[in-house]
Design a protein that fits this description.
The chain has 16 helices and seven strands. It is α/β, with parallel strands linked by helices. The radius of gyration is 22 Å and the shape is globular.
C-alpha cells in the first residue's frame, strides 16, 4: 500500500496520521520506511536501465522530455521518456533517464545505449518537433521515420497567430490532421496556406516546412493512425507525476524524482491497452505496404516474418 500511495501524492509525513487508524501505530508507517522504499526504487530503476533488449522489438516509439521540480536543487529534472509498441501491439516502457534540457547529445546517449543493449531501429518515432531527438535519431537509427506530434504542432502554430484567428486555424488544422488520406491532407494544407499565408507566413511555415513529418502516419495502417498522431501515451501518464510533485513541491533529489517517475510509469503500464489492429504491427515490421491505411502488398516472406 505504501508504494501505491507515495507516488500518487502522499508525503512521507502524512502516512502515520492518515493510516494509523487502520493499521495501528506499529505498522511501519514512519518517514524512514518510505525513505527506504525510495532507495529500493532507485535500485530498481537502475536495473531497468541496464536490462538487455535483445529479446524485444519496438516497432513504434513515442518520445518526450518531461520536466518537473526537484525540491533540494535549483535545476528542474528533465526525464527523457521512451514508450514503445511491441510486435504483438502491446505498449511498454522502453526507457526513462535524467537528460539535460532535451539536448541532442542526451537523446543520442540514450539511443546509443538502447542500441548497445540490443534494440532494433523502430519503424516510426513520434515526438515533439522541438526535441533534440531528431538529430540524435538520424545519427543512431537513421532508418527510423519521424512523425511530429500534432498536439504540440497545433500549439506552436496557434502561438504564432493572434487569438482572433484561433477558431478558424483550429478548424483548418483539424482538416489536415483528420483527413481521410494523404492526398486530402495535402489539399487541406494548401487551403490552410491560402487562408493564412498573406498575413501569418510564420504560422503557415510551421506546417508547410514539416509536411512530411506531419503526414508520415498515413503510410501505416489506418487502425494505428490515432495512436501515431500524438505523444499522448506519455503526456497522459505523466499527469500523475505532476500531481505528485505539486503535493510535495518536487522530489528531494534528481535520483528520487527519476525513481518516482519510473514507478508511476511501471504502474501505469499495467493499464495501457494495445494499439488498434494489433495483428498489423508485425506486418509493419515485416515491410508490408499500406496505401490510404489499407494493406496492399504482402509477400510470402513478409507473411513468414509476421
Amino acid at each position: 500500500m505504501l508504494p501505491l500511495q507515495y507516488p500518487h501524492g502522499m508525503s512521507t509525513g502524512d502516512f502515520a496520521p492518515a493510516l494509523e487508524g487502520f493499521f495501528g501505530a506499529t505498522a511501519g508507517l514512519s518517514a524512514s520506511v518510505i525513505t527506504r522504499l525510495t532507495t529500493q526504487w532507485q535500485a530498481e530503476q537502475r536495473a531497468f536501465a541496464e536490462r538487455s533488449l535483445a529479446d524485444r522489438d519496438y516497432v513504434y516509439v513515442w518520445a518526450d522530455g518531461v520536466h518537473f521540480n526537484v525540491r533540494l536543487e535549483e535545476d528542474r529534472l528533465c526525464a527523457l521518456v521512451l514508450v514503445g509498441v511491441r510486435g504483438d501491439g502491446t505498449k511498454e516502457l522502453v526507457a526513462i533517464i535524467d537528460g539535460y534540457r532535451e539536448s541532442t547529445e542526451s537523446w543520442a546517449d540514450l539511443l546509443r545505449d538502447l542500441k548497445r543493449r540490443g534494440m532494433r531501429a523502430p519503424m516510426l518515432a513520434v515526438g515533439d518537433g522541438a526535441l533534440g531527438l531528431w538529430a540524435a535519431l538520424r545519427e543512431v537509427f537513421p532508418e527510423t521515420r519521424a512523425q511530429r506530434c500534432w498536439v504540440h504542432k497545433v500549439a506552436n502554430v496557434l502561438n504564432a497567430l493572434p487569438k482572433s484567428a484561433h477558431p478558424a486555424a483550429r478548424k483548418a488544422l483539424a482538416e489536415i490532421r483528420d483527413a481521410e488520406d494523404r492526398e486530402r491532407a495535402l489539399t487541406a494544407i494548401d487551403v490552410f496556406a491560402g487562408q493564412f499565408a498573406a498575413k501569418f507566413g510564420k504560422a503557415v511555415a510551421k506546417i508547410v516546412d514539416d509536411t512530411e513529418a506531419l503526414l508520415a502516419f498515413y503510410d501505416f495502417p489506418a487502425e494505428h493512425w490515432i495512436h501515431l498522431k500524438t505523444t499522448n501515451p506519455i503526456e497522459s501518464t505523466f499527469a500523475t507525476v505532476r500531481l505528485r510533485t505539486r503535493v510535495t513541491k518536487g522530489a528531494g533529489s534528481r535520483a528520487a524524482g527519476l525513481a518516482m517517475a519510473f514507478k508511476l510509469l511501471e504502474a501505469a503500464e499495467q493499464r495501457w491497452r494495445a494499439v488498434n489492429g494489433p495483428h498489423l504491427v508485425a506486418l509493419v515490421r515485416a515491410g508490408a505496404r499500406f496505401e490510404k491505411g489499407v494493406l496492399i502488398e504482402r509477400s510470402e516472406d513478409q507473411e513468414d516474418a509476421a
